[in-house]
Amino acid sequence: MSTIPRASNSPAVPMDVENNRELQGTNSTEAEQGKIKKIEELRKQIERLEKIMNAPGYEEKVLPNVRAKNQEKLDSLKERLLLEEMV
């Protein structure tokens, strides 16, 4: 195992290791914020689609194949939301 030479007043942990720790903290915070944003966006998409699908006359006015696609999309969004919330 090689030793890293350091001056007597330098920290016990090499600077690159210390900087890496700081970056990891930043990355995890950014990742958490990204996750929260993604969850919020999925919830908004679900809410918009449910509003459309629950509108008066939706069943009568919208073709069956379009209703089926909307239901598939809603199911997919809900599944993605569950997966995001679990991670």
UniProtKB/TrEMBL annotation:
Record flagged with keyword Hydrolase:
no
**Record GO biological process:** valyl-tRNA aminoacylation
Q: Which residues cross the membrane?
A: none
User: Which GO terms label this protein's molecular function in UniProt?
Assistant: ATP binding; valine-tRNA ligase activity
List, alphabetically, the Pfam families matched.
Val_tRNA-synt_C (PF10458)
Question: Any idea which UniProt keywords this protein has?
Answer: ATP-binding, Nucleotide-binding
| Protein name according to UniProt | Valine--tRNA ligase, mitochondrial 1-like
Q: Which organism is it from?
A: Vigna radiata var. radiata (Mung bean)
